[in-house]
Design brief:
This protein is mainly alpha-helical. 80% of the residues lie in helices and 0% in strands. The radius of gyration is 23 Å and the shape is flat.
Amino acid sequence: MVILGVALAILLSPGWRTVREKFLSWHFFKMSLSSLPTGFWVDVRMFLIIEAIVLVLGLAIALIRTLPAPVLFPVRAVAVVFVDVMRGVPTLILLYIFGFGFLALGFSFIPGDETILGGAALACSYSAYVSEVFRAGIESVNPSQPAAALAVGLTRTQALRYVVLPQAIRAVVPPLLNDFIGLTKDVALVSILGPQEIARIAQINADYYFNYTPYVAAAVFYLVITLPLIRIVDHMRYRGLQRQNALVLM
């Protein structure tokens, strides 16, 4: 009933005709479909590469922060500063710093490709968040688990690899997927540096046609990826609750 009421309010609003012409024009929607897939493929490739980097870098940072060895204190301090800074600075500002600030330094080893620089900014930002997710998963494992592994003769490294990490990763998969749903959308922020990805192409089309329907068409492309991921996260949470209830009943 609420959805029906909202729909009727929109359809009966004084500006509905203008909104329909400016945002929901089927004519301009079809025209946008010829150029948006190319930009969307750029987004997909960026997302897949950045996701792989984030998983590896986030897990490495989490492991560094959870290892108690005193000799690793300087490395832990660097990891803490990295996470604090990357989480504290807005992603948009990081993109400007990576895309324009680092490039202005003039070092030959810094790539001039804005796509690479923007991807590096997103990878650093999301690695900080993902490292905290991994760290929470590692710390959620009961201390008796690694203690039992050490008691049966495993080394600390083996206990971490075969006992702690499998349980930690299994526990954090749903929140990790939530982070990656956010990443699929934040990839569009790289467009501020100039790459011709789907959000940038939609902006060009909207400026050319004097119509905002290309933005709606781009949103549909994003939904193709995000909606299945959202359903997967909900399913995994439901399965996790089922397992918890089964253990309680036992």
